[in-house]
Amino acid sequence: xxxxxxxxxxxxxxxxxxxxxxxxxxxxxxxxxxxxxxxxxxxxxxxxxxxxxxxxxxxxxxxxxxxxxxxxxxxxxxxxxxxxxxxxxxxxxxxxxxxxxxxxxxxxxxxxxxxxxxxxxxxxxxxxxxxxxxxxxxxxxxxxxxxxxxxxxxxxxxxxxxxxxxxxxxxxxxxxxxxxxxxxxxxxxxxxxxxxxxxxxxxxxxxxxxxxxxxxxxxxxxxxxxxxxxxxxxxxxxxxxxxxxxxxxxxxxxxxxxxxxxx
Length: 263
Hints:
The structure is a single chain. The protein has helices at 3-32, 49-74, 95-118, 121-128, 147-154, 156-163, 168-185, 208-217, 228-232, 240-252. It is mainly alpha-helical and 263 residues long. The chain has one domain. α1 (3-32) packs parallel to α7 and α3 crosses α7. The N and C termini lie far apart (57 Å).
């Protein structure tokens, strides 16, 4: 196996994924259609160019670490200990999207506890402070980690490929969907549709406001995709719903502010 070639391929794909998925919303929302999204901005203050450059620089280091971890667990002999399968007929086709959903649930659980641990006073400054330099995050902040945090973030890959049978299409779908949600969380603008607020989904999924509040307040809202763990552990910021409604009111007028399970 040519490990160098595999590394270059994975690094190239990861880099392109970062610049395309983070870059497109950044260009369109921050510049091209900035006036249209003006009322969707979560924080009043503006991030500066130096913040964007710092986020991209840190993200390139994280991308490098992600690529190394991917090589170690998917290309090296350690791959024999995973449940990656290449025969698409080994499992029903429907298993691929189901496996992606399971992987996202596992990742959310891992991320919540890992993220909350990183906020411990003895760890925060050494590992997590780099990410929180983005008080007003942009899409570029999605992978802006200290190297030690990047290693912890990358470890979700070996966890899910050891626990869950995954086809390469499933792994790719997980990586792309995970990063899209991550970029949305760091967008700096709330772009979710108006109907979400009165849907049961609002009680489950995170929004850009949810994670943005974590960056501006430095604690609470530790979940990545879902509100579930924050609500169970009572770590959701008490102002979250109020702040979400405030942004949505600026976008659409007074929103629906309640959801009944009997609706």
